[in-house]
Amino acid sequence: MSTPTGNDPTTSRRTVVHLLRHGEVHNPGGVLYGRLPDYHLSERGQAMAERLAKHLEHADLVHLRCSPLERAQETMAPIAAAHQLPVVTDGRVIEGDNLFEGKVFSLGASALRQPKSWWLLRNPLRPSWGEPYRDIVVRMRAAMKDAAEAATGHEALIVTHQLPIWMARRDVEGRHLVHDPRKRECTLASLTSFTYLDGRITSVSYSEPAADLLPIGKSKKFVAGA
User: Fold this and answer.
1) Total domains present in the chain
2) Residue 113 belongs to some domain of the structure
3) What transmembrane ranges does the database entry give (predicted)?
4) Domain enclosing residue 92, as ranges
5) For position 91, which CATH number holds?
């Protein structure tokens, strides 16, 4: 996918940075796990990771970067093995900090029904329950820039989480960061791909290579805590 620039000013160097959301996590209790340790891929999540490795088998990947959380590392593992590339663990692409972390959001037991939680919802513009959206954008911009530079003329892959991916996309597309989480187009094991020409992002695309492995009704839908 690379285009050598040489000495010809009319040519452009094309680079692609893929943001991959990790696969499904084993979470029978419906906990918003956020940055908590020891939340690993489910069997379905492992199948998603293998599917992504197959999907990216012929991609021109030269640089891999990953969130430090187990679910992201486990999603990256078969891809890294297939391409025989080292993985840079990057704390800048970790899940957003969230004060609801560790609370239950399953049907009939949602933490949002508890009056003591309502104070955390006082300002959805920031948001008041977690890491400011703008802070997530800043760290994602920096990590993506580093990945693009490391893969100049080729492709890079970053395994990260739904909220950081959605913030990066809304930022690039010039949309307000405040949004309805239920309407995020960033399902499990999905790819949001940013094309750079000479260091500038020129387009964004989205795909779901593991759509058939998703739980029924989950395509393009929000999953809390993922």
Assistant:
1) 1
2) no
3) none
4) 14-97+131-213
5) 3.40.50.1240
Between CA 193 and CA 91, with CA 222 as vertex, the angle to 5 degrees is 55
Q: Which of these, 16, 22, 14, 15, lies nearest to 164 by C-alpha position? A: 22
Each residue's pLDDT tens digit, 147-169: 999 999 999 999 999 999 999 99
| Inter-residue contact 80 to 100 (CB < 8 Å) | no
Q: How far is the first Cα of the chain from the last one, in angstroms, to the nearest whole number?
A: 31
pLDDT in tens, 63-122: 999 999 999 999 999 999 999 999 999 999 999 998 888 888 654 555 556 666 666 666
- What are φ and ψ of residue 52, in 5° steps? -65, -40
What is the maximum span of the chain, computed from C-alpha positions, in angstroms?
65
pTM for the whole structure: 0.87
* Residue whose pair of structure tokens reads 């999907």 in the numeric block: 55
What angle (nearest 5°) sits at the alpha carbon of residue 218, between those of residues 80 and 206? 55
